[in-house]
Amino acid sequence: MTPSRVLQKLRAGDFVITASVNRIAEPWLTEMIGRIGFDVIWFDMEHRAFGYDKIDSLSLACRATGIDLMVRVLKTGYTSPMRALEFGANGIMVPHILSTEEARQWVDWVRFPPLGRRGFDGAGADADYALTDAKEYLSKANDEVFLALQVEDKECVECVEEIAALPGVDLLFVGPGDLSISYGVPFEFDHPLVQSAIDRVASAAQKSGKWWGIPTGSPEQAQSALDRGARLITAGNDHALLLRGFQQAFEEFNQIRVRS
After folding, report:
1. I want to staple 84 with a disulfide (CB 3.0 to 4.6 A). Which of 71, 106, 172, 198 is the partner?
2. What pLDDT sits at residue 173?
């Protein structure tokens, strides 16, 4: 199976830079992002209408450029993470974890025994299409797949220490937008309630020897997050970059005038 670049860097004490694919789920874009030097693609199925068939081609482009594919899955049950992994995802991100029991369920679905209860197929991209020895694959699979659970609700914050301590959970990922809404202070990211929650996530991750991450929209925000202990940061998404690019182009070209 393909070693995880994300886990390799995190285990070495480094941080990872993420590019988000929210609109253009095309392998050429994923390959280009990989060639630029990003560590991982964040592929969002929660808020978009993408099907699982998109994962195959994106994961192939990721493997071609040596980067990881992290899929934020639909919370539809056992097949949701299993199919994403078998189609080539290196990491699974789960939105809106609300309890320790729910977190433990996702560990069961993502991890092979003895950590979890994931079923074995062995013919997918994750197992090199059955070209890898089955026992060798099983011995390495749990170590080359990462599970990121999103902290987006105050209920999750209240039990985040227990969630962080679960074997099989690798990373906590804060969702500041939904978290601020949950606390009744929408998009007030500097509000004490939101900042205190982030501090609690960071502390829980550190205590349990886990990593955590957060969306960052600028190098300054990313540096601040790293200084705070985060190790997975985001550096743009296709929707935002397209929006800003077209806005800038329109503003610039709208300055020209018909000359008599």
Report:
1. 71
2. 98
List the domain boundaries for the chain.
5-253
Work out the mean pLDDT of the chain and round it to a whole number. 96
CB burial of residue 163 (10 Å; 0-12, 13-18, 19+): buried
CA 37 to chain centre: 17
Please give the angle made by the CA atoms of 230, 166 and 135, to the nearest 5 degrees: 105
Rounded to two decimals, the pTM is: 0.95
Catalytic residue, chosen from 47, 96, 191, 239, is 47
Q: What is the DSSP string of 238-260?
A: HHHHHHHHHHHHHHHHTT-----
Longest Cα separation, the chain = 78
Report the pLDDT averaged over residues 136-155: 96
3-class secondary structure per residue, 5-42: HHHHHHHCCCCEEEEEECCCCCHHHHHHHHHHCCCEEE
pLDDT bin (cut points 50, 70, 90) of residue 236 is confident
Please state which of the four CATH numbers 3.20.20.60, 1.10.150.120, 3.40.462.20, 3.30.310.50 is assigned to the domain occupying 5-253: 3.20.20.60
Tens-place pLDDT, residues 159-210? 999 999 999 999 999 999 999 999 999 999 999 999 999 999 999 999 999 9
Listed residue (187, 237, 258) closest to 18, CA to CA = 237
Cα separation, 71 vs 44, in Å, equals 6
Active site residue 239: no
Tell me the torsion sign for CA atoms 19, 24, 29, 30.
positive
